UniProtKB/TrEMBL annotation:
<dbReference type="InterPro" id="IPR052558">
    <property type="entry name" value="Siderophore_Hydrolase_D"/>
</dbReference>
<protein>
    <submittedName>
        <fullName>Putative esterase</fullName>
    </submittedName>
</protein>
<comment type="similarity">
    <text>Belongs to the esterase D family.</text>
</comment>
<dbReference type="InterPro" id="IPR000801">
    <property type="entry name" value="Esterase-like"/>
</dbReference>
<dbReference type="InterPro" id="IPR029058">
    <property type="entry name" value="AB_hydrolase_fold"/>
</dbReference>
<dbReference type="GO" id="GO:0016788">
    <property type="term" value="F:hydrolase activity, acting on ester bonds"/>
</dbReference>
<dbReference type="InterPro" id="IPR021860">
    <property type="entry name" value="Peptidase_S12_Pab87-rel_C"/>
</dbReference>
<feature type="domain" description="Peptidase S12 Pab87-related C-terminal">
    <location>
        <begin position="285"/>
        <end position="361"/>
    </location>
</feature>
<keyword id="KW-0378">Hydrolase</keyword>
<keyword id="KW-0732">Signal</keyword>
<dbReference type="Pfam" id="PF11954">
    <property type="entry name" value="DUF3471"/>
</dbReference>
<feature type="signal peptide">
    <location>
        <begin position="1"/>
        <end position="21"/>
    </location>
</feature>
<dbReference type="Pfam" id="PF00756">
    <property type="entry name" value="Esterase"/>
</dbReference>
Amino acid sequence: MKTHLIAVSLLACAFSLPASAESSSLSVKAEGPVVISGATSLTVHSAIVGRDFVVEVTVPRTPPILPGQTAPVIYVLDGGYDLAGPAGWLLGAAGTMAPAYVVTVGYPAGASARGVDLLSAPATSPDGIAQKGGGAETFRRFLVEELKPFIEARYPVDGNRSILFGHSLSGIFTANALASHPMDFAGYLIASPSVWADPGVIDRLHGLQLGVPPRRVFVGYGAKEEAYMISGARQVVQALSGLQGILIQAKAFEGEQHISYYPVLPNAAFPFLLPRDNVMRRPSPIELPVGRLKRYLGVYELADHRRVAITEDEDGLVFKVDGRDEAGLLAEAVDRFFIRGVDANIVFDAGDGAAKEMAISLNGRTARALRVQ
């Protein structure tokens, strides 16, 4: 009888489809999984843990291009639910936080071991879900001893400005990482921590003794979560409040459940954890005489010997650093240019002849480039 009812329901759904669905002129040219723009996916093997992990790296819209320049990095557990990388990219591009690399850590399909990796000991939740636990310290070592050095060798990131971000079981892992090894990361985003799995973390957090520089900590949770989850998050906030060496910010997301606030969590947390060093300028463009623009054309060289080419097209001047995409330059004053939507400006030396050098400022850092052609 149940099978018959299901069949009837499916037939009803089929007959209720709009007639245009069959007569559409559209045809599928290609179909496949969505790839996050600007992200690289790596499957890595941890010798410490003895298992594989999927690591996805999202590069900021304005990555470091100047000699010696680096950017902060956010390590996000549970794969960031495929949201953290794009959120970090957008917030950095909008100028609301320091542009940062976002590195998400997850598992190959069908091989999740979060119930082992994120807890130090077995635990059962109030709703009866058992977690095996026992792998937290090994997983922490994977992050600190293998993944961080790997990322720092592969990308221009600043290891002293790294953030650890965890939610739920990975939230209690993040809280424990702060309690046991606070200097591993410069900041911690603790979201809906499963304090029920390790209540002793509260005393360990309360006993933290830190110096300088202070650790930044953001604690978030949904205001409509289960009472025991809200209580756990509030206990973490209370344990950390007033401690020397801790800068804390907390937020209860009104009307939100355990996972529903996750999409807006980066908007609240990332700017606090990684504030910009400078205010992003948004100048208005002006027109310069074509003859004036000619003095800037040429090839310049940075201290690390990379070349910077200034060319022109129908829209004006074009700026390109070796190995990077080109960008259009807009004048904001004589000898001074900017790139729209990016915290970057280029200032040429004053004069009437060919420019001899330029000063390139990007995300608050400046470097000189001297004309070579």
